[in-house]
From TrEMBL:
Name the UniProt record assigns to this protein: SWIM-type domain-containing protein
GO MF annotation terms: zinc ion binding
Keyword terms: Metal-binding, Zinc, Zinc-finger
Superkingdom of origin: Eukaryota
Keyword Ubl conjugation: no
Length: 321
């Protein structure tokens, strides 16, 4: 199967070579390399913070807002971004590549991600034999599979209070995905369900609105669309809906399952579209108006109004067909 996405550093020679051999693939620049390149251009701590936010902004509005702030604060940095980086912002700005699947890797095929771990054990004075021994020993240590309960008990720095319902889900994930899901579990305290409509759960996460479709087990947040492991919104839906099983939740996350023999799958599925703020506000106002009608005129009258609205929608659909 053809490679869908390459995540690499900021070297133009590497991206040019990939363009020749894999013209169909998406090329995403590693966020760590981009942020490091930006922060080298200034000593202003506040400006460094806004440069980091510029790279990690999830919406185009936030991206434009941070770009204006950077231009006002330091004109030379704004000119540097405009000259060298803005022409290819679809390669490094998260707001413009939010639909590109990267599977949560900061680098392609997890090669450079493993390099960081190997460097912790390998020293410059080590011989080639010793380097190979340490690398294989570290790989053997990482391949041992322990239960989530043992990892929670043996955790030295973090203590996660995982609900009992999430233990079977976490036990069938790989160690990498398990650590990510545990972090999402920690962030789940900032999420709450605003209202439910059939298989749809509308959630609010720190002022941002997201939707989870239970029937297909998908979320329209950037974390799920890029990484394909359960995000905090899907975990909350899994806790709320008791009829949802762990294997159903991991329908599009099978790459992160243990005993998965097919690690590279065709992920060219259609992700849930991000709803506009206007659409979400209209849905919220309709729900508020419905409750007001029930309080003022009763539930029977509100049901009749809802039937008329549904008939109006069906009439529009039939005319379009």
């Amino acid at each position: 199967m053809l490679t869908e996405t390459f995540v690499m550093d900021c070297a133009r020679c590497e991206s040019a070579a990939v363009r020749i051999t894999h013209g169909h693939a998406n090329i995403i620049l590693c966020a760590f390399h981009v942020i490091r390149a930006f922060r080298k251009k200034t000593n202003d701590k506040i400006l460094k913070t806004y440069l980091t936010r510029l790279v990690t902004a999830e919406t185009v509005g936030r991206f434009n807002q941070y770009y204006r702030i950077i231009n006002r604060r330091d004109r030379s940095i704004g000119q540097y971004l405009s000259r060298y980086w803005m022409a290819r912002k679809t390669m490094w700005a998260r707001a413009f590549y939010g639909d590109v699947l990267t599977l949560g890797n900061s680098t392609n095929n997890r090669v450079e991600s493993l390099n960081r771990q190997v460097k912790r054990y390998v020293r410059k004075s080590d011989s080639l034999y010793k380097c190979m021994y340490k690398a294989l020993k570290w790989s053997e240590m990482m391949s041992t599979r322990r239960s989530v309960e043992d990892q929670l008990i043996a955790g030295r720095y973090y203590k996660y209070n995982a609900p009992q319902r999430l233990i079977p889900l976490l036990n069938i994930l790989t160690p990498f995905a398990r650590s990510k899901v545990l972090y999402e579990l920690k962030q789940m305290r900032f999420v709450y369900v605003e209202y439910e409509s059939g298989d749809w759960l509308f959630m609010v996460d720190r002022g941002q609105h997201y939707e989870v479709d239970i029937s297909i087990c998908q979320c329209n947040c950037s974390m799920f669309m890029m990484c394909r492991y359960p995000c905090r919104h899907m975990l909350l839906a899994y806790v709320k809906r008791r009829n949802l099983t762990a294997h159903q939740l991991l329908r599009y996350c099978s790459r992160w399952k243990l005993h998965n023999t097919q690690n590279f799958q065709n992920y060219t599925l259609t992700a849930l579209p991000r709803r506009s703020e206007e659409y979400v506000s209209i849905q919220r106002s309709q729900r508020i108006h419905k409750h007001r009608i029930i309080e003022k005129y009763g539930e029977r009258f509100a049901t009749e109004v809802e039937k008329k609205v549904d008939n109006y929608y069906l009439r529009i659909l039939n005319t379009n067909l």
